[in-house]
Amino acid sequence: DQQVKQNSPSLSVQEGRISILNCDYTNSMFDYFLWYKKYPAEGPTFLISISSIKDKNEDGRFTVFLNKSAKHLSLHIVPSQPGDSAVYFCAARLRSNTGKLIFGQGTTLQVKP
Amino acid sequence: GAVVSQHPSWVICKSGTSVKIECRSLDFQATTMFWYRQFPKQSLMLMATSNEGSKATYEQGVEKDKFLINHASLTLSTLTVTSAHPEDSSFYICSAIPGTSGRGEQYFGPGTRLTVT
Question: Nearest CB to B113: which of A31, A41, A98?
């Protein structure tokens, strides 16, 4: 079963506008949620994370929102830039000492100039 | 900081041979490293958790004898694909957790593209 889901395989946004990437999860045993950015043939790059006890975390142009009751999180990128075009993965860390992450399927973001 | 390297970045081998992939944490010590596999246009699939000084923990469905993992030091983990077959062709990525991380993040290497002919 897919514990972390990104239901939108792709998103296209105009430069300067807001990009909103969504992620849903089913397991309540996650203590951290993370967003990674990935280019083809490269490893993922860590962007931002949020603890399960928080509902918002902001870092520059990136803000992550967590809605625990809906088991939903989102990544907002404002303003979007062409260099943001990549695949974005949502990940969740299991509440244990293993550090294991469960990844969503990814959303391909295209920011048009 | 928190840089992870992998070597080689790509490798082509013949069926039946073995291939070793190295994962190094360059500026931090990592007691735990992870090995993932990614198929085209798919998510990252966790293969195993590599623990320094102890045996790796494999995910369900991953063959321990085929994917040998050794975590000999706090900065190096290796994945050896033994008796490789064409279906083992994939993009293999490692990650590591800095000891001081409290935010849950893993830092990933650049990946290794394996092609088995």
Answer: A41
